[in-house]
């Protein structure tokens, strides 16, 4: 999160610049009005877009090699949940926890079924962005 902070500060300042507001103006309403996701949510959005492409195609082969769909040996209810398999190795340390092969399945499996099973990339993108907006910019 520490590495994202400078980028978030720049985005916040850009939002204030667009609205010509002073330095200490609250930025959440501005981001909501501009329809901008915070930087952390943008990273999650891009990662999950790639995860959708890995699951449903077309994705680069190097990504398809490191992220796999969960396969169930028998026909169970769990087979229709459209999940990704987390890596089988033990991910230790900060660097490992930031790897695409670790984060993509983790974040993907946290999504609601309606988002994971979207019938097209356009539908997935719309549902995902809506979900991220409600998570990160919800009205208090």
Q: Would you give an account of this structure?
A:
This protein has 140 residues and is mainly alpha-helical. The protein has eight helices and two strands. The chain has a two-stranded antiparallel sheet. Helix 3 (39-56) packs across helix 6 (100-110). The longest helix is centred in the middle third of the chain and has 18 residues, at 39-56. The mean pLDDT is 88.
Offer a quick outline of the entry.
The chain is mostly helical and 140 residues long. The chain has 8 helices and 2 strands; from the N terminus they run ααααββαααα.
Keyword list:
140 residues; 8 helices; mainly alpha
User: What level of helicity do the residues show?
Assistant: 55-70%
Q: How do the SSEs run, as a string of H and E?
A: HHHHEEHHHH
Report the mean per-residue pLDDT as an integer: 88
Strand order of the largest sheet: 1-2
Distance between the termini: 23 Å
Q: Helix/strand/pairing class, anyone?
A: mainly alpha
Unreliable stretches covering 5 or more consecutive residues: none
Percent of residues in beta strands: under 5%
Shape field: elongated
Strand tally, please? Answer: 2
The number of helical runs is 8
Rounded to the nearest angstrom, the radius of gyration is: 18 Å
């Amino acid at each position: 999160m520490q590495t994202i902070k400078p980028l978030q500060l720049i985005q916040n300042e850009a939002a204030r610049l667009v609205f010509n507001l002073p330095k200490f103006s609250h930025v959440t309403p501005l981001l909501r009005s501009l329809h901008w996701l915070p930087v952390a949510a943008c990273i999650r959005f891009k990662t999950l877009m790639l995860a959708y492409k890995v699951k449903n195609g077309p994705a680069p082969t190097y990504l398809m090699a490191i992220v796999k769909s969960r396969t169930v040996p028998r026909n169970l209810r769990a087979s229709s949940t459209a999940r990704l398999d987390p890596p089988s190795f033990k991910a230790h340390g900060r660097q490992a926890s930031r790897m695409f092969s670790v984060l993509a399945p983790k974040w993907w499996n946290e999504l609601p079924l309606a988002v994971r099973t979207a019938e097209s990339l356009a539908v997935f993108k719309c549902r995902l962005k809506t979900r991220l907006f409600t998570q990160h910019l919800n009205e208090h």
